[in-house]
């Protein structure tokens, strides 16, 4: 009997060991497999400690700190927005010469790849007999936003200051907002972000106000640079425009400012120049107004050269004449 | 034989000298080709807090012949002291081609109590040498206003700082009146320039309908811009002359695009699908009852 | 009388044997078929893992055509899922006796296509690891949220709708499986016992079953209509030309019923051939289903006409570009083939009686199902290529779209999954609702007996009347 018991104990132990070994190896294999399928974020760059406004310490790469970017606000603050402000943009089509400096300035600001034009300069011709014109189009941050209505997880949201942002920590990548936006304003991160840009952005904690670092499988778009606004600066496209064609300001103050610092009364500007909004009849209530290209300062675009060829980024920079070191 | 060797040595010497000078000239020329022509636009500002700054904007010629902002140009700022240039600071221009320095309060002055600031580009690798100077006297611009004045009247007084700090009123200076907005300053009206009278004063009435913040406060400013004698001088003050901004009572009301849905939508969907799921649960309950009957006999 | 009863019992026994025979053996061809399906699914899984690692950029989708083959297939599968509702629920409510042999295959098709149709949007997500956000932060204003709610509701409903009629059959299987000599047979016995939930065939149990089935029959119809309507809202609630149409709800439901009913016919034909159910699924069934498919195709054609003729008459700018592309541009071949080949042609074929024979109807329904898939693609992709803002100066891969091997592989894997689940189901459970067919036979038999009784009585009465006429006397009252 005792021997039988001993034998049973041995078998039991053996069984237990065998089972736990198998379970353990399956779990480990599974974990390794998952890691291979969902690789974690990689670190890069020399590390420096930074303190955020709400008292959190995060580690940033020193390269990133060379830029003037401040630490971002919390997610809750980013969702609320700046109280008692309603941001609005006015684009003077008579002054736009299609140089795309706004596009490049935005891409530099947000470490975006060159084919992602968050503010895109179109060559438009409304009818065969009407004159063509250059049409810079950022996100319109609509007051009746079709994109925000359809988001199933509240990843894109409208703040009290009128700005529509995307939270790329919550976005599930269903792309319903991209289908809903009638202005083709949104872009999707189809693959891993460019490693050079990931290195440049460093270890900044993500904030919807900065839209960096970008996450694969999420949506992005023009964000009216809220982090710059909090510093009292205007979005990169506005301050980068060499023709002073873009104005930005607070509708509550009834004033908009352009790149040279010229500040005008918003209602006066719209009244004097017959300001309008693009595709008004869609009812989206955009926050970007356009001034029609009357008494234009620059020649009309050549519509024959409009195709799907992507202009090289180098050529754009040479046109702008930015001096490089 | 001696003649031949003499001629040979002389011609060799000439050739070598010519070669070196040629190389030297070529080097000079190539150096001249590598650097771009640059222009300096130098301005002087005196702010509300009495601080003085000098701003140099450097523009350089690019390959297409256009003048564009020059990044990272090294600008040397000097102040003239007893007819000599005293180095103040070296600053590199930023992305917009701007170099800014703060000037000290007690700048060295000439006999007529004016100071001269010089901005130079010297021996820069990319840009040719350039120089620009400005020559101004110190002036004060003070604002006199009543923050609760219903007439919204402000009086700006321009005085020149004379010997021993005595303030002499300036007549005929153009003062422009602005209101501060979020990203810049806006002229208060279309016709916002007032010339100072004999007392050095310029009065201006701000219009009624300027939007203010939630308490109706606006920041008003007066500036002398590009004055020949005094440069740019400005002063600002707060006043409760703006219209009161109505605060958002509920910045996030229920709506289709807000986090919380309109109630009719919530009620409709809940009722419809809630009803269906209620029926499902009833069916699950019936299935349980069927299961419980397995003790009973067969039909 | 005794011989009649014997015949009836024999008939019922034959029904049971015929229905249960496929569940009793797993032949070589079944194993090969399942093997092929597993290979296709394995390859699709590999492609999906590649997509998970390297992002959705491994597909051909880019920023303009941000929804492609995956979403088209999703709509198609949800459309097919209307089959069970149609056949089972609507024919049950209208008390059509001929539905009995085909209800289970229709309900199964609904359940499986809904299951895989519901998985496809998850495959299409950029961040499937954030799926819990839908529950944690869900917004009920979003058409996608309505979609999730409706599909989940329909899935539970169709599961119930499939399960309830299976209960008596599970009891039958459980009782007939007496010898459990292999572990697989043991598993089957356990499965049947669990799924029969203690069914003994008592009066009260039957009563409850009939009650719940009636309730489900009534409830499943509006749920099914709401599902495809809500799927159409994903498109109709946007502002895009071609999608922003008020007729989208009915259009999609009609399209779903049309392709779903064709799917039922295909299921009928497949099981009839493979499991030798020719005695039960007769050419009369094909004729009647053919008429139903014809009626639904006509309704679909009518809505199709509305959807395209009205905007074509107006040629509003944005819609005009889209319609030009569909009518005589790059999508014209596919569009007109769909309209004439898969809508008009089947109408013509099914209108003639010969077109509703087994073979021809099956071929027609294959054309309908394939055409429905292409039509869904033509709803999704051309609109995305004609946004309000012109497409200018973008990379070449953005301005055109054709699905690549990743999308085809994953879609094929989903289709293989549907076939796999159907195959496994049909090998474990009877593909005809045995008790329903039995009941049909009994009803038919009772009807026949009643008719015989009546004819007998009438013959006797006629005899008496004849006798009276002969004698001329008034019969005594």
Number of strands of chain B: 17
* CATH top-level class of the domain at 139-239 in chain B: Mainly Beta
Q: In percent, how much strand structure appears in the residues of chain A?
A: 15-25%
**Main beta-sheet annotation of chain B:** 9 strands, mixed
**What is the 3D form of chain B?**
flat
- Uncertain runs of chain A are 37-45, 62-66, 308-325
Give an account of the 3D structure.
- The complex is a heterotrimer of chains A (325), B (299) and C (477).
- With 325 residues, chain A is of the alpha+beta class.
- Chain A has helices at residues 2-37, 62-65, 75-80, 101-110, 146-150, 176-180, 195-201, 226-230, 236-240, 266-273, 313-320; strands spanning 47-51, 57-61, 87-92, 120-124, 133-137, 156-158, 164-166, 187-188, 219-220, 246-250, 255-257, 263-265, 288-291.
- Chain A has a single domain, classed as Alpha-Beta Plaits, CATH 3.30.70.20.
- Helix content of chain A is 30%, strand content 16%.
- The termini of chain A are far apart.
- Chain B is of the alpha+beta class and 299 residues long.
- Among the domains of chain B are: 38-137, SOR catalytic domain (Immunoglobulin-like), CATH 2.60.40; 139-239, Immunoglobulins (Immunoglobulin-like).
- Chain B contains two helices and 17 strands.
- With 477 residues, chain C is mainly α.
- In chain C, α3 (69-80) packs across α11 (248-274).
- Chains A and C meet through β4, α5, α6 and β8 of A and α2, α6 and α7 of C.
Features:
heterotrimer; B: 299 residues; alpha+beta; Immunoglobulin-like; nine-stranded mixed β-sheet; four-stranded antiparallel β-sheet; flat; C: 477 residues; mainly alpha; Formate dehydrogenase/DMSO reductase fold
Task: Walk me through the topology.
The complex is a heterotrimer of chains A (325), B (299) and C (477).
Chain A: H1 2-37, E1 47-51, E2 57-61, H2 62-65, H3 75-80, E3 87-92, H4 101-110, E4 120-124, E5 133-137, H5 146-150, E6 156-158, E7 164-166, H6 176-180, E8 187-188, H7 195-201, E9 219-220, H8 226-230, H9 236-240, E10 246-250, E11 255-257, E12 263-265, H10 266-273, E13 288-291, H11 313-320
Parallel strand pairs in A: 3-13
Antiparallel strand pairs in A: 1-2, 3-10, 4-5, 6-7, 8-9, 10-11, 11-12
Chain B: H1 2-34, E1 38-46, E2 52-61, E3 67-69, E4 74-81, E5 84-92, E6 98-103, E7 114-121, E8 130-137, E9 139-145, E10 153-161, E11 167-169, E12 174-180, E13 185-187, E14 193-195, E15 201-205, E16 218-227, E17 231-239, H2 263-292
Chain C: H1 2-20, H2 28-54, H3 69-80, H4 82-93, H5 103-124, H6 133-136, H7 143-163, H8 166-176, H9 183-195, H10 203-236, H11 248-274, H12 283-314, H13 317-328, H14 332-351, H15 358-384, H16 405-428, H17 434-471
Helix pairs in contact in C: 1-17, 2-16, 3-5, 3-11, 3-15, 4-5, 4-10, 4-11, 5-7, 5-11, 5-16, 7-10, 8-9, 10-11, 11-12, 11-15, 12-14, 13-14, 14-15
